[in-house]
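TICKET: design request
STATUS: open
ATTACHED STRUCTURE:
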């Protein structure tokens, strides 16, 4: 008996050891199988996000082109003019630099902080390269002003929060405190608020259209339901640019809408439905409507179809039955659809750019302007980072609301 017990214990221990060995062998295999996916996510998702964050908080123009000046001017107290060592380092950096394009970036960066740097740097670079030991004050009297040296000191660090603050129409005062920019100097905050407002209007329009549509689609059966769902899915199979171009044709003064309204006598003159806020809302509502209908429809399919008739049999008015029975049960799908539509609409670019006017452009258009026209990648990254944070917060909320409730006993 004891021998059998000992043998059984050895078998169990051997089984456990074999199981552990198999687990150790299976882990590298599982990692190898997942490595292509991890590599794809790292290259096309994580790395772009890290690059955007880095670009939004980095400002290496001064420290890269004027490294000696950046190292020396850090110890300056900010009063009067810097010491002769700082000015000598500044002249050495100008002589050592051979990249005129990089010096142009430095000039533009300093000119954005202190007006007049563009002409001052152009004159200084020419004179210092000809006479490296010349005193800067002999080149231009502005080198005797504290403000110009202060601009170099403020931008000497390779890291800055200036772009993130500027994206919200904020700046740092001379004392280091955060303050609002002068009125009229920037409109980023206005455009962000406009983006949120347009997205909210589009979300509300999608809800008003999508909720009854989803209820009707969930209440019918057979080919009727198939046709209604196909009508919702059909726009998703068409290019966004094609749909936007179609709305440009439909909404123009000689388009279908104005022709029908004038033909039946509702209006006498064509309505202005394009290159304004109304056209943007109409086109975006059509494009984003499936993202509202499908979540509500999927939730309504789980609701028993006899609940409304049961409420009516108990004496409830149809409106009261809808408000007290069906609407609360569909609330989860409504919230999910609203978050999906809102998250998608705040990043829209093509539709507002083609259908809207100058006062209807959203934050994505401003990001495109900084990235492609002004070549201010840091500013574009800062605005993109704000949009990314907002989207991630909304996605976290959507993920929280879309979880299945934990069953309770």
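STATUS: resolved
RESOLUTION: sequence designed for all positions
ATTACHED SEQUENCE:
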């Amino acid at each position: 008996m004891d021998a059998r017990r000992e043998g059984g214990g050895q078998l169990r221990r051997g089984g456990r050891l074999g199981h552990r060995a198999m687990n150790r062998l299976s882990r590298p295999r599982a990692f190898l199988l997942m490595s292509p996916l991890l590599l794809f996510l790292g290259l096309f998702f994580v790395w772009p996000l890290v690059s955007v964050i880095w670009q939004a908080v980095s400002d290496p123009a001064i420290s890269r082109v004027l490294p000696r000046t950046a190292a020396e001017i850090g110890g300056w107290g900010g009063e009067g003019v810097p010491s002769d060592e700082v000015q000598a380092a500044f002249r050495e950096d100008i002589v050592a630099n051979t990249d005129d394009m990089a010096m142009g970036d430095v000039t533009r960066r300093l000119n954005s902080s202190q007006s007049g740097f563009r002409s001052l740097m152009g004159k200084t670079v020419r004179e210092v390269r000809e006479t490296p030991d010349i005193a800067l004050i002999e080149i231009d009297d502005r080198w005797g002003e504290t403000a110009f040296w202060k601009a170099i000191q403020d931008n000497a660090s390779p890291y800055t929060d200036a772009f993130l603050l500027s994206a919200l129409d904020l700046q740092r005062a001379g004392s280091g405190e955060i303050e609002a920019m002068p009125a009229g100097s920037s409109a980023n905050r206005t455009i962000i608020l406009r983006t949120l407002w347009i997205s909210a209007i589009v979300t509300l329009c999608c809800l008003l259209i999508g909720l009854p549509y989803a209820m009707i689609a969930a209440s019918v059966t057979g080919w009727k339901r198939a046709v209604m769902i196909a009508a919702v899915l059909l726009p998703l199979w068409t290019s966004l640019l094609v749909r936007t171009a179609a709305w440009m044709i439909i909404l123009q003064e000689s388009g279908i809408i104005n022709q029908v309204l004038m033909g039946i006598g509702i209006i006498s003159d064509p309505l202005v439905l394009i290159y304004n806020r109304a056209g943007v809302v109409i086109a975006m509502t059509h494009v984003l409507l499936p993202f509202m209908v499908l979540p509500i429809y999927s939730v309504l399919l789980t609701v028993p179809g006899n609940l409304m008739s049961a409420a009516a049999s108990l004496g409830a008015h149809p409106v009261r039955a809808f408000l007290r029975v069906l609407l609360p049960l569909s609330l989860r799908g409504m919230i999910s659809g609203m978050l999906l539509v809102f998250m998608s609409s705040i990043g829209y670019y093509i539709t507002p750019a083609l259908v809207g006017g100058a006062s209807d452009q959203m934050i994505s258009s401003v990001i495109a302007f900084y990235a492609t026209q002004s070549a201010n990648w840091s500013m574009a990254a800062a605005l993109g980072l704000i949009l990314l944070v907002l989207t991630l917060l909304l996605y976290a909320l959507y993920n929280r609301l879309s979880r299945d409730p934990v069953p309770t006993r």
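CLOSING REMARK: The chain has three domains: 1-58, 61-158, 189-401. The mean pLDDT is 82.
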